[in-house]
Amino acid sequence: MKVVLDASVFFSDWHPEGDLFTTHSVCDELRDIRSRGNYEKLCAEGLRIMSPGRESKEVVTAAATTSRDASVISDTDRDLLALALELEAALYTDDFAIQNVALILGVKTHPINQRRAKRVHWKYRCTGCGRYFDHDGECPVCGSVVKRKLK
After folding, report:
1. Is residue 116 part of a domain?
2. Across the chain, which distance is largest between two alpha carbons, in Å?
3. Are residues 99 and 138 in the same domain?
4. In this predicted structure, what is the pLDDT of residue 135?
5. In total, how many domains does the chain have?
6. Rounded distance, CA 122 to CA 7, Å?
7. Which 8-state DSSP code applies to residue 84?
8. Integer distance in angstroms from the first to the last C-alpha of the chain?
9. 57 belongs to a structural domain
10. Does pLDDT of 126 surpass 60?
11. Band of the pLDDT at 123, cuts 50, 70, 90?
12. Contact call for residues 14 and 112 (beta carbons, < 8 A)
């Protein structure tokens, strides 16, 4: 079974099995001794570092826009989702936004130390005038901050 690993795997004591993959951007996030040690162990066992293609990243961006998680997923998150999509692999992560986008993409996810994320629907509401929008940022009506909220 192909498995794509998020950084949270390297921060835990959990040992994944299967054909293991991760991205260069995840490797850049591993700075402490524990996560680097876990990374080195998994590399010795065959962990492969890959970069996803541009097309799959665009598909992920579109899915994140649909789920309204585009403002909270990072470039690393996009890389992980795109790689899992390309490899038709399961994605091991504790990140709820990643799991939310993965549901739309049909990518299987497995939590490590957290509960599994439930499907979340977001809305955006102005903190000043209370109007609803499709995005966060600045309210075009009153200029206040538009924040993301659960539906």
Report:
1. no
2. 56
3. no
4. 77
5. 2
6. 25
7. H
8. 36
9. yes
10. yes
11. confident
12. yes
Give the residue numbers spanning the domain of 105: 2-110
Question: Tokens in use for 91?
Answer: 């994605």
Please check the confidence at residue 116 and state whether its pLDDT lies above 60. Answer: no
Domain CATH for 80: 3.40.50.1010
CB 98 within 8 A of CB 74: no
Q: What pTM value is reported for the model?
A: 0.76
Model pLDDT for residues 57-92, shown as the tens digit of each residue = 999 999 998 888 888 899 999 999 999 999 999 999
Q: Determine the Cα–Cα distance for residues 77 and 79; give it in Å rounded to an integer.
A: 5
Q: Are residues 88 and 149 in the same domain?
A: no
Residue 72 contacts residue 95 (beta carbons within 8 Å): no
Closest CA to 124 of 101, 102, 100, 145: 145
